[in-house]
Design a protein that fits this description.
Layout (H helix, E strand, L loop, with lengths): L2 E2 L5 H10 L5 H11 L14 H10 E2 L4 E7 L6 E6 L5 E9 L2 E5 L3 E3 L14 E4 L2 H15 L3 E6 L9 H12 L11 E5 L3 H8 L6 E5 L5 H7 L8 H15 L3 E7 L7 H11 L4 E7 L13 H13 L4 E3 L13 H11 L1
Parallel strand pairs: 1-2, 6-9, 9-10, 10-11, 11-12, 12-13, 13-14
Antiparallel strand pairs: 3-4, 4-5, 5-6, 7-8
């Protein structure tokens, strides 16, 4: 297999270019073609000589991220994309339009091994990690398709980003590099179900990205019922890792909490949440669960969700209910990919 040229950081690309006998300034040209002009083929790099383009093509490749399907919500302009990778695997990404700009949610793995009970992404387990090239490729393709700049990125699609730690860090480096799209670190949010060692490592990386913890239960027992990862990492361990991230970076933690009717939306749940969140500088994002046919979880009523939110707010918790985006398309994470995989296997 040829080398994945889009997965190199700017500094690494300079070395690669010099190693093949070219001058350093060529790296800047190539990097700009890849990460600003977003080309998919060396032939498109028109200010490089034909001989250099041919030389690049012999040693390197630009891994394709190809759109297979696009769903567009008639309600709010949300777009959901199904992308095919070089080996035939597929991942999904979501474009959400806000007044402050375009936000894209990307996948970090093909499938997921975390096993969260309410999530379609994990049904079928983990197939493989995505490379940094395939992660930025989702953003680049969406930007090309819509003809608009992406300003915010969340890594909350299929997969556990901190289970693909090295590629995730490389992705952040490439995406925020001043020679590329140069998206601000503060406009990047990464979600984790709570892989403690990598949370602690991330705290030491000197980044300014936002860390979001998928909490979903305010006690160890309730979390274990919904999230198998809780069998490995105790809730108090995870919370300490969140505190370490805040201490090192000064970045407020976001806690994600999927509201499931009759499972974690009771008055007792609200009290338990208040107990663990009140001492912390954080934001709580309530997410009424997206029902999926493989599970029997139900979304709470709007009134019930608002009552839950109000209880938390009265105790001083900074809380919002996530605006439901793309309700008229395959909204839940992993649904579109799962439908495609099922259709192909029939």
């Amino acid at each position: 297999m040829k080398k994945d040229i889009r997965a190199y950081t700017y500094k690494e690309l300079i070395k690669e270019v010099e190693d093949i006998g070219e001058k350093k300034f060529r790296a800047k040209q190539i990097y700009e073609w890849l990460h600003v002009k977003l080309v998919d083929h060396f032939e498109e790099m028109t200010d490089l000589s034909k001989s250099l383009r041919e030389k690049l093509g012999k040693t390197y490749e630009i891994l394709p991220v190809t759109m297979l399907e696009r769903q567009q919500s008639k309600l709010d302009g949300t777009n959901k994309f199904l992308f095919q990778l070089y080996d035939g695997n597929v991942v999904e990404s979501v474009l959400m339009r806000y007044k402050h700009g375009n936000s894209v949610c990307i996948s970090s793995q093909v499938g997921c091994r975390m096993g969260c009970r309410f999530c379609a992404s994990t049904i079928g387990g983990l197939v493989r990690n995505l490379s940094a090239s395939e992660m930025v490729g989702q953003i680049y393709q969406i930007q090309k398709i819509i003809g608009e700049r992406v300003s915010n990125v969340v890594i909350m699609g299929t997969g556990e980003p901190l289970d693909n730690y090295d590629n995730f860090l490389r992705f952040v480096t490439i995406l925020t590099d001043e020679h590329g799209l140069h998206i601000s670190q503060r406009n990047i949010t990464v979600s984790t179900c709570g892989i403690v060692p990598n949370m602690l490592a991330l705290a030491k990386e000197n980044l300014q990205i936002t860390l979001a913890l998928s909490l979903h239960g305010a006690t160890q027992e309730k979390r274990k019922k919904l999230m198998p990862v809780a069998n490995k990492y105790e809730l108090q361990e995870v919370l300490k890792a969140c505190d370490a991230y805040f201490k090192e970076t000064g970045r407020r933690i976001t806690f994600e909490y999927s509201l499931v009717h009759g499972v974690n939306d009771t008055e007792e749940d609200a009290r338990e949440l208040i107990e663990i969140l009140k001492p912390r500088n954080c934001h709580l994002n309530l997410i009424p669960v997206n029902p999926i046919k493989e599970r029997d979880f139900e979304q709470p009523s709007r009134k019930s969700a608002l009552n839950f939110k109000n209880k938390l707010e009265k105790s001083g918790i900074n809380v919002t209910i996530r605006r439901e985006m793309g309700a008229d398309i395959d909204g839940a994470c992993g649904q579109l990919r799962r439908r495609y995989v099922q259709t192909c296997s029939e």
